[in-house]
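Quick one - inputs below.
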Amino acid sequence: MQITLEHTNSSAIAREMVRARLASGSPAMDVVLTLIVVCDDDTVEAALHSATTLAREHPARVIGVILGKGTGSPDLHAKIRVGSEGSGESILLRMSGRLIKHAESAVLPLLLPDSPVVVWWPGSPPSDPASDPIGALGNRRLTDAEAASQPVRNLTRVAKHYTPGDTDLSWTRLTPWRALLAAALDQVQSPVTGGSISAGSGNPAGVLLEAWLQSRLKVPITWHRVDQDQIMLVTLQTKAGEVRVERASENSCTFSVPGSAPRTVPLTRRTLAELLAEDLRRLDADQIYGATVKHMLENR
Amino acid sequence: MITNPLRDPQDRRLPQIAGPCGLVLFGVTGDLAKRKLIPAIYDLANRGLLPPGFALVGFARHDFGREGFAKLAKDAAKAGARTPWRETVWKQLYAGVRFVEGSFDDDAAWEELGTTLAELDESQGTQGNHAFYLSIPPALFATVVNKLKQHGLAAADGDSWRRVVIEKPFGHDLASAQKLNETVAEVFPPGSVFRIDHYLGKETVQNILAFRFANGMFEPVWNSNYVDHVQITMAEDIGIGTRAGYYDGIGAARDVIQNHLLQLMALIAMEEPVSFNAKSLRIEKQKILANARPPARMDLHTSNAQYTEGWAGGEEVEGYLQEEGIPADSTTETFAALRIDIGTRRWAGVPFYLRVGKRLGRRVTEVAVVFKRAPHQPFNRNDVEELGQNALVMRIQPDEGVTLRFGAKVPGTVMEIRDVNMDFAYGGTFVESSPEAYERLILDVLLGDPPLFPRHEEVEMSWQILDPVIEYWAHQKTVDTYPAGTWGPESADKMLERDGRRWRRP
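Output:
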């Protein structure tokens, strides 16, 4: 069910949502969290699509916030969707005029009672997400350095203001690599003496991987610049021999550890919705990410 | 063993991957292997939870060779997998697929299995870690485990491990269960034997533990001061189908009560374990099973019956005795109900009613904790006429979730109180992410993490509870019946009426 409200306010929106829920025949609320998506007219469609796909794993009240022109009298338009295409419900808020400086005032009454709030900036994030008025509503704040024009710079800029609860999606993109490297060391059981990463210099995930490996292994990691954007190869030197994980194609890599023959294992690029789903599985702060960005800033 | 510097308990994004290992599957052409086990292995691989060099060895008396077995596995995985199909994941699995042809008494085949495992340790890096999954009839267990021992496959050297996985039924009475256990125990130490009760791998069953022990508001009323009685129901709407050969002579009590229902009862009734490791859980479950008593008067507090022809769910169906492969004079029960009392301070005077059956009203498994009525009602009797007893229902399957049933005022000018439901639906709150029970259990076998697997002591205690009941039923002269598609025989209703209670309609 879709409802459009023009020149409205938050209490009218909330009232319509309850009415729509009753009308759809399922007054029970299954949603477990509020996901606020701060976007603009260009990114809104793709972002809300990912958020709705995501709602299949984590039923959420998705609140899209579009901040329009700051001039003119304050105005609020809302589009509500309840109970069709998957679980969860969504509200798209379009704000303009002086209201955009007080956007949180329109969002606050629409948050689910007591449930966690996640704020996601699919485009360029504010430099200090936790102090941003909308960011301050969230327990978790998700930025995406890769969506900005200078990803690594963007990552470090946001990392300087790291507050527990922040994570960047480039860290989430790194999980499969980290899982493979951890699995390799499960097998090798020998001290690591050094390592290397081959990746494009502008790859924020590569920068995080370097910092993570250094902080965990306490050994120097050298960086080989390659033309591709992606991480292409990671090696770890151990007393028993070399661990080598090398990208072989878009969705696989070659995995070799000392003592057994190289093998091809899957390494797929995941969709935005899959990345978000991983992030929302845990709604507390990611301490390992905190330690990694701290290490990254100290060593750059 | 050095700790892996890349792992950290706080790093919960990294999946817990099984170490280097392989799985040897006996009974590859069986229904279970094709419908559940192979798809679960693919799903685990797809979720990145299997080690990069995982090996899957099939052993069967078929000449389909490695390619034939790989094709069977691929088809089964494609048909049954829960997660999306990815060719790269299959290719990774395929590299570790092997097949050994032979019958269980063919020594050459066992030698070949040994060579295959050694070759896998070399090429796939399985490091001598292998689990043997016996997806075969229990009558063959002895042959297989003895052959494993005879050919030196059951023992591992150094840090590596060998494990054996067996499926229910774990015997058909106490004596046979003990005999089965002796056979396996001669070859494998208790810690290496994994008895799979797939019910215990279900998320909703594990949620019983989370529900009871992670929350503060339920435990205070979880005792005989507040609980009137507990009903545990496992109903199926289907008949025996193609399982006639297995089912006849076994019956509902042996098939389901001995394992699933008594385990559910133990989880509902047990005290809080001091931790969630396998040993602490087992200690608490065993205390309950050791103190659970079958009824003193079997004639009053048990019920057994067979379904007769009738209409079930809009279809005309045959009675049990008319089903194909069932002898006309069979006395096997398709419905079983009994009262169990648990002799502990917490549960004294709180009966647990267990019932199970085929061709009942609908397919449902649930545990209902029914509370005592409020000791005093300030409302007059007319007002609360429609108020039942409060109940907390754990819906195990389908439509997994929790229901709380309590009274609420009917809107209007008069005070009238009626029962209402408050629902939590698992499917609505944590969609799609919940893995199949077999995924969880196979991964636990490979990780060597046994909290969800019953040990032989539990199996034997369960038989001790059930044996006298089954023996009493064996001496009955007539078999009670119930029409297909109903909620069981009248004797089951009478059994609760005697105690002043009635069955819920689930």
